[in-house]
Amino acid sequence: MAMAVAQHRESSSGSISKLLDAGKYVRYTAEQVEALERVYAECPKPSSLRRQQLIRECPILSNIEPKQIKVWFQNRRCREKQRKESSRLQTVNRKLTAMNKLLMEENDRLQKQVSQLVCENGYMRQQLQAASATTDGSCESVVTTPQHSLRDANNPAGLLSIAEETLAEFLSKATGTAVDWVQMPGMKPGPDSVGIFAISQSCSGVAARACGLVSLEPTKIAEILKDRPSWFRDCRSLEVFTMFPAGNGGTIELVYAQIYAPTTLAPARDFWTLRYTTTLDNGSLVVCERSLSGSGAGPSAAAAPQFVRGEMLPSGYLIRPCDGGGSIIHIVDHLNLEAWSVPEVLRPLYESSKVVAQKMTIAALRYVRQIAQETSGEVVYGLGRQPAVLRTFSQRLSRGFNDAINGFNDDGWSLMNCDGAEDVIISVNSSKNVGATSNPVNSISLLGGVLCAKASMLLQNVPPAVLIRFLREHRSEWADFNVDAYSAASLKASSFAFPGMRPTRFTGSQIIMPLGHTIEHEELLEVIRLEGHSLTQEDAFISRDVHLLQICSGVDENAVGACSELVFAPIDEMFPDDAPLLPSGFRIIPLESKTGDTQTLATQRTLDLTSSLEVGPVTNNSTRDSSTSYNTRSVLTIAFQLPFENNLQDNVATMARQYIRSVISSVQRVAVAISPSGVSPAAGPKLSPGSPEALTLAHWICQSYSYHLGADLLSDSAGGESLLKQLWRHQDAILCCSLKSLPFFIFANQAGLDMLETTLVALQDITLDKIFDESGRKALCTDFAKVMQQGFAYLPSGICQSTMGRHVSYEQAVAWKVLAADENTVHCLAFTFINWSFV
Fold it and tell me: Homeobox domain location, by residue (predicted)?
């Protein structure tokens, strides 16, 4: 017995020593480390077979056991992970340090502003107590523009004096209290925000300010921002007429700029300004600008009636370098857009600081941040396109659309005679170069020219972001495939006889292929494929698909003052980097009175059930909605460009006029459908927000789930609106579809709409089979009989698809019959997708 115990102890100690030997530290030679690093670069996590192969192929590793090789790779991966995490934390720490410094400066500025207001308040009290008959205007904090009558703007000394004064006024706005800045509604600063944004509360003109941190050097940032047409989409041109050095090492430039009109109802703007670039004593780089008195440079004689001279009050960029790299930017835009020159209904657009903030100030900071991320390699785009190329595509689409809306005479545009109604404007450009690219080989030789049909209309109580999303996702509701095919054929033929066109039928299906997006997804660039089939047997196997290059922006409903756009142009399937573009599209601009600039808007709502989720009776909700949240107006501008032959100009003009009117009619129908106060005759019966039908369906869904599965769908089953609230906010996607031969969805909670990437107004256009792939449809057909027989079925984990073509995975799905109140009638089928996420 003692011998057995001794043998057991010896064997145990032997096995322990072997384990210790196997796990002991091994000191590798430089050659061995080099060999392992080469393998690690190819495969950071090699398999057991690969490690054994490595030992056989590398004699210098023959004395090392496979387990030791495994441990080396584990340690190497751990070191790599720690290195990346350390680098990330250092970057975050630098950003937080700079942002903290920025916030401290902002706090100091606000404290100075409070002190100034306290002094002014005390002064006003003294005036009131003295019962002064006149009001002393010196207490106002309104920024005024000094007159330059005492200075000569025609010689360098006078210009330098103006430049120094511009610098002082700009700095007082950027970091001082010259303007009463208030936080931009809906743009709260935070760790994930682009920057800190503010608009003017009370000053002449409209003004906006932005502060942010960018990982670029000051000189690079100044170079980007001075190239205004590259980031300001409404800037038609910017020309430097004169540039000379200032005595302090800076430069003074005389600049002439033209700004597009955003709609057909207003003239464009131009500016004659002095731009001063200099470096401060603390190392900060400043680019400031202001308008000069006098006519200065101007548009060509042909286009002069299409412009109104605007005024730029002291504005610019303050760029301060940060310790450890990067820069802090202060941007100020202060303009007087001469609102008197536009129709009264459009004046809020020219009197809104929020619009200036979105179009210029915020856009500038976002663009610089975008360039910084692309430079660092953080942005990866699809289809092998370089970021600069995709940016150029977006700029060309936007510029071409603006050219079509404005129709400047010096570009060759002229108006055709209207038919009396004048609801649609027809412009013709016989000299227009469709290609408009640097490579003339890829430009199209026009035998006739380009015709543009455009119109503007007012919309009441229609959220622009919701309307643009609908137009993007449901093109078949408003577009004519034959018109798209007509435009697309111009890219494949040198003339517009289009001998290659054949009778084609549009299937109604569109595939959206993303190309890229900006850092906050405020603009999307994508390729749209419209699926078409030939109607003739001999061409049945020839593709009739039409491809469009498209940008979509302004889809965020919480972006106050943002413009929503959908601009597209036909392209060839294998479009080159300088492919010719002929843009058309929609632009929706919210109109808001200047008095509302300093008030935070009521919470924006889409066409969903959220309006039922507020405390209070449903009738009160609808009354409040009509007077607050949805009592807003916007202006919609539509412009479509079509090529034509000289002998077909009148025919194409008639077709274009009819097509625009058809599109307007479709958009009006859609606008009525998505308007919270409207009823859609085309959409059929649907669950309107706050309706009794929505509350009833929510009750039936929960009751039927409990009846069939013996468990509660919601944690706290309560009646009335509380039940609807819980169902709407449920973390899992819950959807209901009709019991038709082709089932379509009739209800979805918020998670369901997010999963399908759609809205309630578009929900009924989605059929059940479209969200599943082939295997999913087979599994659904297999379990459908079980659902109808026993009332429910558990579906295994799988993959479904959103309306945007993105794949969605889910751990489990449950299907059950939704019974009406009598528990004998099946109202619809309900599905819940548990723990879903985008793949």
Answer: 27-83
